[in-house]
Amino acid sequence: MSGEKMTSLQKMAVLAPEGMLLAGITGLGYFSAYLSDLGYKSHFHIPSMFVEINLNSVVLSVCVIIFTLFIAFLSITVPRLRRVGPYLFSFFITASVAVVIGMKLGFSLSRTNLFTLIFYFLLCTGLLLLFFQLTKKENRITNLAAVMVLSGLMIFVSYSSGSLIAQNQKFFLVSDGKSPLVVVDTYKDSLVVAPFDPKTKTVAPRYQFVHLESDLNAKLNFSMKKVGPLNISTE
C-alpha cells in the first residue's frame, strides 16, 4: 500500500490490537450462533428463553466470520484487489455461506423457498458491494456506515440461516404409534417434542420437554424419518 493513503477503516483493520480482534470475533461468533438458533426456534414458535448456544454452532460461526473478515481485509488493503476484489469476493462470500447452509440441509431446498433464497443471495451480495464501496471513501461517516452495513449483514445472515434451515429441514426423529410425536429441537438434556400429523406434515405447537433419562423417554421409540418440511398449525 506504499504511495497510497489509507482510509480510517483501513488503518483500523491494519493497526487493531490482536487481542481486540480475537475478543470481537469470539463475541460475534457467540452472537451469530444465538441468532441462528433464535431464527430456528422462532419458526417453530418456541420462546426465545429456550435458545441454547452449542459449541458446534459457535465454531462454525467463528469460521465463517474469520473467512468473511479475511476476504474483506484483503479487498480493502491489497491494491491489486481493490478493483476486482469487491465484485468477486461479494459473490464468493455469499456463495460460501449458501454452501454452509446447504450442507446442513443436505443440499435439499423446497421449491416454495427457492425464490426467497435467491432474493437473500442477491441482497447479501448487494450489501457486501455497498460495504466495499463505502470503505473506499476517506470519511468517518461513510466508514461508520460501512461497519454498520457489515454488522447488519451478519445479523441478517445469522438469523435467516436458522430460519431457512427450520423451513427446509426434511429429516426428523418421529416416535412410533398412533399419535406420533416429532422431535423439533433439543434443550439441555431434553428433547423438544410436539404432536405431529403425518398426513398434512403439520406440527401442533404444544411442546413437551422429554428428559433423556426420564421414564417417558424409555417408553418412546424414535426413528429418523423424512417427514419435512414441516408446517406449523396456527392453533
Automatic annotation (TrEMBL):
Keyword terms, alphabetized: Membrane, Transmembrane, Transmembrane helix
Keyword Transmembrane helix: yes
Transmembrane spans: 12-33, 53-75, 87-107, 113-132, 144-166
The organism's place on the tree of life at top rank: Bacteria
Protein name from the UniProt record: Uncharacterized protein
Source organism per UniProt: Kroppenstedtia eburnea
